[in-house]
Automatic annotation (TrEMBL):
<comment type="similarity">
    <text>Belongs to the cytochrome P450 family.</text>
</comment>
<keyword id="KW-0503">Monooxygenase</keyword>
<dbReference type="GO" id="GO:0005506">
    <property type="term" value="F:iron ion binding"/>
</dbReference>
<dbReference type="InterPro" id="IPR017972">
    <property type="entry name" value="Cyt_P450_CS"/>
</dbReference>
<keyword id="KW-0560">Oxidoreductase</keyword>
<keyword id="KW-0408">Iron</keyword>
<dbReference type="InterPro" id="IPR002397">
    <property type="entry name" value="Cyt_P450_B"/>
</dbReference>
<dbReference type="Pfam" id="PF00067">
    <property type="entry name" value="p450"/>
</dbReference>
<keyword id="KW-0349">Heme</keyword>
<dbReference type="GO" id="GO:0020037">
    <property type="term" value="F:heme binding"/>
</dbReference>
<dbReference type="InterPro" id="IPR001128">
    <property type="entry name" value="Cyt_P450"/>
</dbReference>
<dbReference type="GO" id="GO:0036199">
    <property type="term" value="F:cholest-4-en-3-one 26-monooxygenase activity"/>
</dbReference>
<dbReference type="InterPro" id="IPR036396">
    <property type="entry name" value="Cyt_P450_sf"/>
</dbReference>
<keyword id="KW-0479">Metal-binding</keyword>
<protein>
    <submittedName>
        <fullName>Cytochrome P450</fullName>
    </submittedName>
</protein>
<dbReference type="GO" id="GO:0008395">
    <property type="term" value="F:steroid hydroxylase activity"/>
</dbReference>
<dbReference type="GO" id="GO:0006707">
    <property type="term" value="P:cholesterol catabolic process"/>
</dbReference>
Amino acid sequence: MSTTMTVQEAGRALADPTAYADEARLHEALALLRREEPVHWVEAPGYNPFWAITKHEDVLEIERNNNLFLSYPRPMLLTAELDEMQRQQREQGMELRTLVHMDDPEHKKMRAITADWFKPRSLRRLEGRIRELAKRYVDRMAELGGECDFVTDVASQFPLYVILSVLGLPESDYGRMLKLTQELFGGDDPELQRGANAEDTMAALMDFFEYFKELTASRRANPTDDLASLIANAEVDGEPLSDVHTFSYYTIVASAGHDTTSSAIAGGLHALIEHPDQLARLQADLSLMPLAVDEMIRWVTPVKQFTRTAAEDTEIRGVRIAKGESVLLSYPSANRDEEVFEDPFRFDVGRDPNKHLAFGFGVHYCLGARLAKLEARIFFEELVPRLESIELAGEPQLIATTFVGGLKHLPIRYTLKS
């Protein structure tokens, strides 16, 4: 590990997709920023400048103050080229408008459309189906003969089946949705990207739009009782959703609804392999599973950042933030903050309290957080008791990204009880 990284180099790492594929480098950079300059101005090649926010307390305060720090128009860090393309799309009325792009009162109204689907009483109806799918994929591991790439064979498949069955999409389309999601979130990774430029990333997004355009027409003509029909036929202030709002809603539910959970499950298993004492502890006491799942999510932190724009001049830790400037909220940094987490680089399946910010906070707290935790809990409740042995069978590989991601390959060798 480098010992000569400067604060400026550490800041630029936040805009370097390869840094997120090298956890040692990433956490060295984040620890340096937390220690030396927790509010740091970043000028990185190919990106519009931004303030890097790396302390848990500051990320939390910005999330709380959603009227001062706005999601629109720059909700996430993108290249300057993609920022410009979005600006042009905005002028044409074709800009992606998901929940993460919105501020109140629009955000509150749009979130309310699907909020009931993700409440505990609604999720209880899904538990049987989720457990059935979890058993299917643990059985799938057994069928693979004791060796597999856990990401591609299991972790990327199980949550996909859950969320797309909730949406009501046909199983024949699941492979297409997985590929489009990987192209959208893996646009910086040579293995997953459709192409190396901004036009290719936008093309993947447009393919999402085309798919959901047909789905919307179908559900409006023939409504069913699935989530897709609810979105297609929703109204806000007595008016049906625009095409852009409808497609944007589908896109965020279908993509974020499984990709982040896949990363948490894969990264969680990797952590258990690397910390066999914690796996043994969990096997001896399955009642720890809810705490263990939260620790896995903290450990992985699938969403790496969101950005906010200052609505007026303000200060963070005495540093002046001018109106219109962007602040990047680094969730991996906040979730390893030494002032909040005791021994933050220790993986602890019994960590309590665990005040991680992996799902955000406040009005933008992840709509699907309960579903993600339910899926992970049920999956590991099915897997952990059946594990007799498990080890790495090759080198794990992380996605190169600046937004959402985790492991893209986790080769493992294992024995399972029947």
